[in-house]
Amino acid sequence: MKALRNFFDNLKAKTGEGGKLHAFRSLIDGFETFAFVPNDTARRGGVNIHDAIDSKRIMSLVVVALMPAMLFGMYNIGYQNALAAGQLETATFWGMFFYGFLALLPKIIVSYVVGLGIEFTVAQWKGEEIHEGFLVSGILIPLIVPVTLPLWMLALATAFSVILAKEIFGGTGMNIFNPALITRAFLFFSYPSFMSGDNSVWVSNGPICGLGYEAAADALTGATPLGLTSAAGFQGFDCSLIHDAVIGLIPGSVGETSVIAILIGAVILLYTGVASWKTMFSVFAGGALTGLLMQWAGLTHIQWYEHLVVGGFAFGAVFMATDPVTSARTECGKYVFGLLIGFVAVTVRVLNPGYPEGMMLAILLMNLFAPLIDYCFVQKNISMRAKRATKK
Amino acid sequence: MAKVIKLRKGLDINLKGKAADTIGGPVGADEFALVPDTFPGLKPKVVVKEGDAVMAGDALFVDKLHPEVKFVSPVSGTVSLVERGERRKLLSVRVKADGRNSSREFDVKGDVKALLLESGLFGFFRSRPYDVTANPEDKPKAIFVSAFNSMPLSQNFEVALKGNEQAFQAGLSALAKLAPVHLGVNVKQNSPALTVAKDCTVTFYDGAAPAGNVGVQINHTSPINKGEVVWTLGAEEVIFVGRLMLTGKVDLTRTIALAGAEVKAPQYYTALVGTPIKAIVKGRLNASDDQRIINGNVMTGFKTSEEEFLAAHATEVNVIPEGAHADELLGWIMPRFKEFSTSRSYFSWLMGKKKEYNLDARIKGGERHMIMSGEYDRVFPMDIYAGYLVKAILAGDIDRQEALGIYEVAPEDFAIAEFVDSSKLELQRIVREGLDTLRKENA
Question: How close are the terminal C-alpha atoms of chain B, in Å?
Answer without folding.
Answer: 42
